[in-house]
Structures are given as structure tokens and as C-alpha cells.
Amino acid sequence: xxxxxxxxxxxxxxxxxxxxxxxxxxxxxxxxxxxxxxxxxxxxxxxxxxxxxxxxxxxxxxxxxxxxxxxxxxxxxxxxxxxxxxxxxxxxxxxxxxxxxxxxxxxxxxxxxxxxxxxxxxxxxxxxxxxxxxxxxxxxxxxxxxxxxxxxxxxxxxxxxxxxxxxxxxxxxxxxxxxxxxxxxxxxxxxxxxxxxxxxxxxxxxxxxxxxxxxxxxxxxxxxxxxxxxxxxxxxxxxxxxxxxxxxxxxxxxxxxxxxxxxxxxxxxxxxxxxxxxxxxxxxxxxxxxxxxxxxxxxxxxxxxxxxxxxxxxxxxxxxxxxxxxxxxxxxxxxxxxxxxxxxxxxxxxxxxxxxxxxxxxxxxxxxxxxxxxxxxxxxxxxxxxxxxxxxxxxxxxxxxxxxxxxxxxxx
Length: 412
Known about the structure:
This protein is α/β, with parallel strands linked by helices. It is built from 13 helices and 14 strands. It has helices at 4-8, 23-35, 54-62, 76-89, 106-120, 135-146, 164-173, 251-265, 289-305, 308-327, 333-345, 376-379, 392-411; strands at 14-18, 39-46, 70-74, 124-126, 151-153, 189-192, 197-200, 230-237, 240-244, 247-248, 269-275, 281-287, 351-358, 361-368. Helix 8 (251-265) crosses helix 9 (289-305) and helix 10 (308-327) runs antiparallel to helix 11 (333-345).
């Protein structure tokens, strides 16, 4: 390791660390104190990961962090309202499948870290993402967008603690508590928040091997889901869900309730081999129960309320939006431009969708809206009483066929 006197010469006196209280970030905390000789401020975000966060406070205090420099923030409502819902309005799916549960959490963590750094007068921020993954990019693009001159410390790109054994040895030599479940080789790694849980590595690295059932934590197996389907309704206003079964709920409460439905019915499992931004392919298992239900419902209400041109343009923009989120460009001008277009499209996207949930499936069974563009009078196979003159179709077809006829005469 580099001499701590060299680190101190870098001018870093105080750093804000994204801290979970787990093995990796606890080792990072001590490593920062030792190698940089700086004061460490810890920030732990409650994004609905379902873990008790107070132990992180106790562990940070045990390692010498001042109580006033330990931040544990409940960001669940902000996360869903200002990050998940805007993304859902765009129908964003990375590579056509992934609902971006990990990706969308990183800009909020980065934003809050920078805010805390400014509040406490820190010189730098630090994270525990490895040099192989996407998260290092997402965190750091967020930092630099919000604080262009901030210094960033990424220990996994600097230290020589390149194995779990080395991490545990470091922890034990510095009296850092290591839980029993961390001493063996971890079968896979996870990341969780209110939108999803992701699992990757170890037992999941061979894309031919079926994911073991013990990997799943957010959903029951579809085979073991109830034999009876369950029907729910979701109300939308301007593209955002506001109520389930007629009961108004806050953004975080609504997503949590949809998660409960999804868990019960085995909804939202995705086995994906994806292209990471850094260039490699990786295989992961994602569980996004509530998000999967919400995505289907949102598309259903758009079917009634969006004009064809707007709907098809949104379908073209969605993959670009998803790629920006996946690659860490949440705070970029192009994502904000796309968001403005998406949000404009949602001004009339209000109404109710009825869905049937059954053994891993989400089935739309009805939708209605005061802003519906659907006209039964125009579309009916019965007498439309002059609402649509079928003879108009002949000219429409001939005009669209003109270039094809000219090509056919030349090349036939």
C-alpha cells in the first residue's frame, strides 16, 4: 500500500464515504483513515433495501467516526418520486428487458453524497464500487456533474486487497467486526432497493446454469404462487400511479404495495446476460416485482391516451433513455431533454388500469380514461353511422403504394 504520508500530501482532509456497514465499506472506512490520514464522514442511504441501518451507525462509531459525521437518510420517497417514476414514464428498458433497478439508485446516492460533502466541508467523496462494474461510472459521473472539482477516491482501483480473504485479514488485523456469514466464500453478491434486488457472480457466472432457487429473495417461485389469480386496479395521473384499488398512496408506499403483490404471485424475475458499459458481458438475476406490474400498467393506460405518433416516438426514445440511465448519465443534458419530451407526452395519461396477477404473469384485463382516444363508434364492425367512410381507404392505399408501384414497374 502507498505510504499514508503520500496520501495526505494530496490535500484530502475529509472524505464522505458511501457506507453500508458491510465488510467492504467497513474495510474502506479504516483504509481511508489509515492511508489518507483523513477524517471520514459516512453516508448510508435508506432506499428501501429492507435492512436494518442502525447497526451501520454503531459500527461507524466503533471505528472512530464522530456521531455528527454519521448520516443515515431515509430517501425512499425521493427515490421513487424523483427517480423511479420519471424513468417509468419513459417506459425505459435496457436492452429491451432490464428495468434498471440498480442504475436508477446511483444518481440519488451521488447527489446526497455531494450535498453532505458541501455541508461538512469535505474535500472528497468515496465509494465501494469495483473497477470492473458499472457503478463506479454511475457514481463518479454523478459526482462530477454536481461538483465538477470534487476529488473522488475509489479504493478498489487503488489498493491491493484483491480477494475476500485479504479483506477479512485486513478487517481482523484492525479489529473490524466480521459477521459469520462473511467469512466463507460468498455464493453471489446482491444489491437491493425499493425497486429491485439484483444478484450476480459466483453461482450465477455460467449463463447455462439455472439460477438456484435460494438466490431469489423478493419473489416466490411462480410454481408455488397461489392457484387463484388476483385482480387489482391502478389509477394514473399524468403518467404517474397514484392509487391501488382506489386507495391513494404516496410514491414509496405505492411501490411497496405493488412489491407485495408481485412477491405473492412470483412476478418480476429476469435472468439476463447484459452488456456492461465498461465493455464486458455479465449475467445477473433481477427481481423487480412491483416495477414489472407498474410497467405493464403504464403501457396499458398509454394505449388509450397517447396518439400513435407520440406513442411510436416514445418507443424510439425509450431505449436511448434507458441507455443513458444504465451508463450513468442521469444528470446529463440529453437525459433532461428526453425527460422534458416524455413528461410533455404524459399530460393526458390519466385513468385506471385493471390487471390480473397469476403465477408470474401480469395480464391487462381493462383500461379506461377520461382522455381516451379510443372510439368504439369509429372502430366498430357494426354500422358506424357515417363515422368512418371506408371508401377513403382506397385513395390512402394508392398514395402509399405509389412508390412501390413505380419500383415494381422499373425492376419487375
